[in-house]
Specification:
alpha/beta, Rossmann fold, 7% strand, 2 domains, membrane
C-alpha cells in the first residue's frame, strides 16, 4: 500500500510539472481590420490584468490598432511569418520565454490548416480558436475569399461579431445565420454579457462544445428512460390503449430503420461531391439552357441509388456548388423515381402490372420538370435558401483539423464532413418520424373505406396519406399495393409518386436548407401540378 501511495504521489508530481510547463495556444483569427487586435487587448485587459503569467502574442499582420503592452510587463509581442508556423518555432518561443499562454493573431489571408497541421507535442495545447467578424464587410469578403475565410470560421470554437451594438437586428440575424451554416458547433457572441462570460470559460480551459454535447446526451438518455418507465407503468396498470403506444413505437422505429442507412449514404455522396467534383463541372452540367438542364437533373438520380431520405443532403450540396435552385429541386423531386432500386421494388410490388414502373417514372419526371420551370419563373433572383453562404462551397479542408494533405487529406475530409452532414440531417428525420407516427395512429385506414365511388376524392385522400405516412421511396410501392383493395390504381399511383416528393420527414429536411416561405410555395406547386396531372390521367383512362 505504501509503495502504491509513493507511486501515486510521484505520478501526481509529474502530472503537476507537466501541467505547469504546458503552454496553452489561443488562436484569434479573422480578416484584416475585423478587430482581432482589439479583441486580444480586451481579453488581456479583463483576464490578465494582474496576472504574473507570461503571455507571448504572435502577430501575423499589422493592423490599425497595436497590442497594449504597457498595462502588463509580462506581455511579449513578436511578429510571425507564415513559414514560421512549425513546431520548431514554437519550441524556441517556449524555451526563450516560458509563457503560460501564446496568443496568435492569425493573418486573415493564411489558411487555418497551416497551424492546425502542426504536430504539437505534450508541452503545447491548441486550446481554442476565436474568430472575429465585421458585419459591414463580412458577406463581400466571404463570397470573394470563401476558401480562406470559410476555412477559418469553420474551425472556430467561438465567433465574435464586432460592432453588434450598432447593427440592425435583421443584419445581425443574417450574419449569425451565415456563420451558423459554416459552423454549427461554435458559440456566436453578439452581446457584452455573453462575451465576458465566455472569455472566462475559454481561458479556464472549458470545452464548451463538448460540454453542451455531453449535457444533451445525458438529458436525452434521461428523457428516454422516463418514457420507457412511463410506458411500463401503463402496461402494468392495464392501460387499454397500450396497443397504440406499441404501434407508435413500431412505426417510429420502422421509419428510422428505413431512412438512416440512406441518410448515411447521402452524406457520403454529398461529401465526395464536395471534395472530389469541381464546382465548374457540376454547374455546367446542370445549368444548361433550355430543357436539357432539367432533363439532366431528372436522370442524374439513376447514378445515385438511394431513396428520398438522402436526396435532400445531395440537393443541398448541389446548391452550395452553384446549381440553380429550380434545377436542384427538379433533381430532388425526380431522382427517387428513376433510382434503379426504387424501380426494382416497384416492379416486385406490382408484378402483374409492370406498366406501373413506367408510369411512376413518367409522372415523377413530368411533375419535377413542370415544378422546376414554374419555380424558375417565380423566384428568378429571389434568395430562397436560408442565407447567402449556402450557395458557396469550400474546396479546402477547413471543417476540422486535417492530418494529411493531397488525396489523403481529401479522403480524411470526406469522413469528417460525412459525420457532420449525417448528424445535421438526422435530427430532421427524427422529428418527421415522430409527427408521422402520431398521425398514422390518429388517422385509421378504415376511415376511407366508404370513398370508393368518387375517384377525385380518392386522389385527394391518397395525396394526404403520402404526405403524412412518410414512407421511403424504396418501400412505398408495397404500402401502396395494400391500398388497392380500397382505392383504384390511379390514386394508388399518386400515393407512390407523391410520397418521396412531399412528406413530413422531407419537409423537415427542407427546412434545414430553404426558407419557410419558399417551402410553402414549393409544396403548393407540387400539390397543384400533381392533382392536375393525375386528374387528367383519371379522365383519360
Amino acid at each position: 500500500m505504501q509503495i502504491t501511495c509513493i507511486c501515486t504521489a510521484e505520478s501526481n508530481l509529474v502530472y503537476r510539472m507537466v501541467s505547469i510547463t504546458r503552454t496553452e495556444i489561443e488562436i484569434v483569427t479573422g480578416f484584416l481590420e475585423w478587430g482581432k487586435t482589439t479583441l486580444i487587448n480586451n481579453i488581456i485587459k479583463k483576464e490578465f490584468k494582474d496576472t504574473e503569467d507570461k503571455i507571448v502574442i504572435l502577430t501575423g499582420e499589422e493592423g490599425i490598432e497595436e497590442i497594449d503592452t504597457l498595462s502588463n510587463e509580462n506581455i511579449i509581442v513578436r511578429e510571425i511569418e507564415n513559414e514560421n508556423l512549425n513546431y520548431k518555432y514554437f519550441k524556441n518561443i517556449q524555451r526563450e520565454f516560458s509563457p503560460s499562454y501564446i496568443f496568435i493573431e492569425y493573418n486573415g489571408m493564411w489558411n487555418i490548416e497551416d497551424v492546425l497541421n502542426i504536430k504539437f507535442k505534450s508541452e503545447f495545447n491548441v486550446d481554442k480558436i476565436i474568430g472575429t467578424v465585421c458585419p459591414d464587410t463580412f458577406t463581400m469578403y466571404t463570397n470573394n475569399m470563401y476558401e480562406i475565410i470559410g476555412g477559418q470560421l469553420e474551425n472556430c470554437d467561438m465567433v465574435y461579431i464586432n460592432n453588434y451594438n450598432n447593427m440592425e437586428e435583421e443584419t445581425l440575424k443574417s450574419v449569425s445565420s451565415s456563420i451558423r451554416v459554416l459552423n454549427k458547433k461554435c458559440r456566436i457572441i453578439d452581446d457584452e454579457e455573453d462575451k465576458d462570460d465566455y472569455f472566462k470559460d475559454v481561458l479556464g480551459g472549458k470545452d464548451l462544445a463538448g460540454t453542451d454535447k455531453f449535457i444533451s446526451i445525458v438529458l436525452g438518455c434521461i428523457l428516454f428512460w422516463i418514457v420507457i418507465l412511463y410506458l411500463t407503468l401503463l402496461a402494468d396498470n392495464g392501460y387499454k390503449d397500450i396497443g397504440k403506444v406499441e404501434r407508435f413505437t413500431t412505426i417510429f422505429l420502422s421509419i428510422l430503420i428505413e431512412s438512416m442507412p440512406f441518410i448515411l449514404i447521402g452524406s457520403v455522396i454529398s461529401s465526395v461531391m464536395q471534395f472530389f467534383i469541381p464546382d465548374e463541372k457540376m454547374v455546367k452540367l446542370f445549368n444548361k439552357k433550355g430543357a436539357s438542364g432539367y432533363f439532366f437533373a431528372c436522370i442524374l438520380g439513376m447514378a445515385v441509388p438511394i431513396c428520398d431520405c438522402g436526396m435532400m443532403i445531395i440537393t443541398r450540396r448541389l446548391i452550395r456548388k452553384g446549381v440553380s435552385v429550380p434545377k436542384a429541386v427538379t433533381f430532388l423531386l425526380a431522382a427517387p423515381a428513376v433510382n434503379p432500386i426504387v424501380m426494382l421494388s416497384t416492379y416486385y410490388a406490382f408484378p402483374e402490372r409492370p406498366g406501373i414502373v413506367v408510369c411512376r417514372i413518367f409522372f415523377a419526371m413530368l411533375i419535377a420538370v413542370i415544378t422546376g420551370v414554374i419555380l424558375n419563373a417565380l423566384i428568378k433572383d429571389e434568395k430562397v435558401v436560408l442565407n447567402d453562404m449556402t450557395i458557396n462551397s469550400c474546396n479546402g479542408y477547413g471543417i476540422q483539423k486535417i492530418n494529411y494533405k493531397g488525396t489523403l487529406g481529401k479522403i480524411e475530409s470526406v469522413f469528417k464532413h460525412t459525420a457532420d452532414e449525417f448528424f445535421y440531417s438526422a435530427k430532421y428525420i427524427i422529428f418527421g418520424a415522430v409527427v408521422s407516427s402520431i398521425l398514422q395512429i390518429v388517422v385509421s385506414r378504415s376511415a376511407f373505406v366508404g370513398v370508393k365511388s368518387n375517384l377525385f376524392v380518392q386522389l385527394l385522400i391518397m395525396m394526404g396519406l403520402s404526405f403524412f405516412m412518410s414512407v421511403c421511396a424504396n418501400s412505398n410501392a408495397f404500402i401502396g399495393r395494400g391500398f388497392t383493395s380500397v382505392f383504384s390504381i390511379v390514386p394508388v399511383l399518386c400515393f407512390i409518386v407523391m410520397g418521396p416528393m412531399v412528406d413530413i420527414k422531407n419537409l423537415f429536411m427542407m427546412s434545414g436548407t430553404f426558407k419557410e416561405s419558399f417551402i410553402l410555395r414549393l409544396v403548393l406547386i407540387i400539390l397543384a401540378v400533381s392533382f392536375v396531372a393525375f386528374g387528367w390521367f383519371l379522365i383519360w383512362i
